[in-house]
């Protein structure tokens, strides 16, 4: 009940109400002026032109359909609505700023040799994400484990601490971290925090100013505005922790009591993350500072934060970030590449399974080609409407031979793909359209590292706690119709 009250009183809820009011006013205005026949005809012509444009545009087919369907159903105002609120209505100056920051990465990474020379490593190298070897990786099989390890590293910080999260929620977890940060700030440690304005909407208004009184620099990413703008969809879904340039963390865990099972809104919360110590931390430093620069006018010398801390270990590590403001779907491309390379097994955990035709086809092909495809999704969904869409993808994957499981104790939030027990991807990107197309994300590509064995063990132990989906059973007609409709708009769910 308290959660609902807090949501109703939050700034984000108020903004959403104002956005809905804008939509209704827009529809009322269109309806009013459409009484004039020449205006009516003009709107129809605009809608037809836009549909033709979308058909010929080089774009994901699902995105096209999510606009074409409503335009055809409501041709009177659908075309105008598209012109006002189309997918990427970000100013050219912002896109240019992002592009320049992105290109600047080359200056700090182009001299690093690629010892792996595989397709994936060369692809990421071309995006200026180098391959590292002298880095120790430790897989963390729960939010609780990551939280305890992170606190110890924060306590040992001497120079700086970077935190970037989609969600920071008030509660015991955040209180403990904040107390540590306040202590470190008094000791002269530089602290920068970047949190998403929408995801962290339960924080007090202008919370960055409160943190500044403790000596902590903070920025709320892409602040919510009181007007309808598709750019509000571009959320910072990253989770990055960097301490002194020596140690870094990432994974599915945000800062909130449910992530360490102090509260249980969706049963037991199953999450995972990874700790890096060594050379590969450099890429997460760069990833954090790129988003910091994107939200500020700061001109930062990345090398000031470089440590050159090496840790002997086997295997290769490639941390990288992904952004919706370029034409590169980096996470999706790596997912597709991993699937195509699989010879024996593909193991996946994801809280959502809302995938486009390319990923669906790749997984079905792999399964039909004899690769064991196993996917674990939640038993208790956190978003019922989204889960209805996730559920709609299960039958066709099962028909192709894939095994799909539901984590019986509650909600699985870890985002992992492990191929043949040799290669893996772990990070913040869900297997859904938002993560693959709309969010700022980050991941770590692993090859031949000891931590992959721990990830496989985690997966197998989770299967033991899960139930196999043998059949979804018969759904009533209305449920299936709703599923079909929702799937048509899956690109914005």
Describe this structure in words.
The protein is α/β, with parallel strands linked by helices. It has three domains: 84 residues, no CATH class; 214 residues, Endonuclease, Chain A (2-Layer Sandwich); 163 residues, Endonuclease, Chain A (2-Layer Sandwich), CATH 3.30.870. Helices cover 45% and strands 18% of the residues. The chain contains 17 helices and 17 strands. The strands form three sheets. It has an eight-stranded mixed sheet with strand order 9-16-15-14-10-11-12-17, with helices on both faces. A hairpin with a 3-residue loop joins strand 14 and strand 15. The longest helix is centred in the N-terminal third of the chain and has 23 residues. The protein is globular. It starts with a helix and ends in a 5-residue tail after the last helix. The model has no long low-confidence stretch (mean pLDDT 89).
Count of the separate structural domains: 3
SS elements, strand count: 17
Shape: globular
Summed up, the helix count is: 17
Helix content: 40-55%
TL;DR of this structure?
The chain has 493 residues and is an alpha/beta fold.
Descriptors:
493 residues; Endonuclease, Chain A; 3 domains; eight-stranded mixed β-sheet; 17 strands
What's the structural blueprint in terms of helices and strands?
Elements: H1 2-9, H2 11-33, H3 37-56, H4 61-73, H5 75-85, H6 92-109, H7 119-126, E1 135-140, H8 143-155, E2 160-165, H9 172-186, E3 190-196, H10 207-212, E4 217-221, E5 240-243, E6 247-251, E7 268-270, E8 273-278, H11 281-295, E9 316-322, H12 330-341, E10 345-349, H13 357-368, E11 372-378, H14 384-399, E12 403-407, E13 410-412, E14 416-419, E15 423-427, H15 433-438, E16 441-447, H16 451-464, E17 466-468, H17 477-488
Parallel strand pairs: 2-3, 3-4, 7-13, 10-11, 11-12
Antiparallel strand pairs: 1-8, 2-5, 5-6, 6-8, 9-16, 10-14, 12-17, 14-15, 15-16
Helix pairs in contact: 3-4, 3-5, 4-5, 6-11, 8-9, 12-13, 14-17
């Amino acid at each position: 009940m308290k959660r609902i009250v807090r949501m109703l009183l939050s700034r984000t809820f108020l903004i959403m109400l104002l956005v809905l009011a804008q939509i209704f006013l827009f529809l009322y205005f269109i309806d009013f002026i459409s009484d004039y026949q020449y205006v009516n005809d003009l709107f129809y012509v605009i809608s037809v032109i836009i549909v033709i444009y979308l058909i010929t545009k080089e774009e994901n087919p699902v995105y096209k359909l999510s606009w074409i369907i409503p335009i055809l159903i409501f041709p009177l105002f659908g075309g105008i609505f598209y012109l006002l609120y189309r997918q990427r209505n970000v100013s050219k100056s912002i896109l240019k700023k992002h592009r320049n920051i992105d290109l600047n990465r080359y200056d700090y990474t182009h001299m690093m040799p690629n010892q792996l020379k595989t397709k994936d490593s060369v692809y990421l190298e071309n995006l200026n994400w180098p391959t590292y070897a002298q880095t120790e990786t430790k897989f963390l099989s729960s939010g609780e484990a990551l939280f305890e390890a992170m606190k110890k590293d924060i306590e040992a910080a001497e120079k700086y601490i970077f935190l970037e999260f989609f969600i920071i929620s008030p509660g015991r977890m955040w209180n403990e971290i904040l107390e540590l940060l306040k202590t470190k700030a008094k000791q002269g440690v530089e602290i920068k925090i970047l949190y998403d304005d929408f995801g962290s909407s339960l924080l007090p208004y202008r919370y960055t100013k409160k943190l500044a009184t403790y000596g902590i620099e903070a920025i709320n990413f892409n602040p919510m505005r009181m007007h309808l703008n598709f750019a509000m969809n571009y959320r910072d879904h990253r989770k990055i922790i960097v301490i002194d340039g020596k140690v870094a963390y990432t994974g599915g865990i945000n800062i909130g009591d449910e992530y360490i099972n102090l509260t249980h809104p969706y049963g037991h919360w199953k999450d995972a993350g990874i700790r890096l110590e060594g050379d590969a931390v450099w890429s997460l430093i760069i990833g954090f500072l790129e988003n910091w620069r994107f939200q500020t006018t700061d001109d930062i010398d990345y090398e000031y934060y470089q440590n050159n801390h090496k840790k002997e270990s086997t295997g290769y590590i490639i941390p990288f970030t992904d952004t919706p403001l370029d034409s590169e779907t980096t996470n999706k491309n790596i997912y597709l590449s991993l699937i195509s390379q699989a010879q024996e097994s593909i193991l996946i955990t994801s809280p959502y399974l809302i995938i486009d035709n390319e990923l669906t086809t790749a997984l079905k092909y792999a399964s039909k080609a004899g690769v064991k495809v196993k996917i674990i999704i939640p038993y208790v969904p956190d978003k019922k409407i989204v889960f209805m869409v996730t559920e709609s993808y299960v039958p066709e994957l099962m028909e192709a031979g894939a095994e799909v499981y539901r984590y019986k104790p509650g909600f699985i939030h870890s985002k992992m793909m492990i191929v043949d027990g040799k290669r893996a991807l772990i990070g913040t990107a869900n297997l859904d359209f938002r993560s693959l197309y709309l969010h700022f994300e980050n991941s770590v590509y692993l090859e031949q590292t000891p931590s992959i064995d721990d990830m496989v063990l985690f997966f197998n132990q989770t299967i033991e706690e899960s139930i196999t989906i043998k059949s979804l059973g018969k759904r009533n007609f209305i449920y299936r119709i709703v599923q079909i409709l929702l799937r048509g708009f899956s690109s914005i769910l």
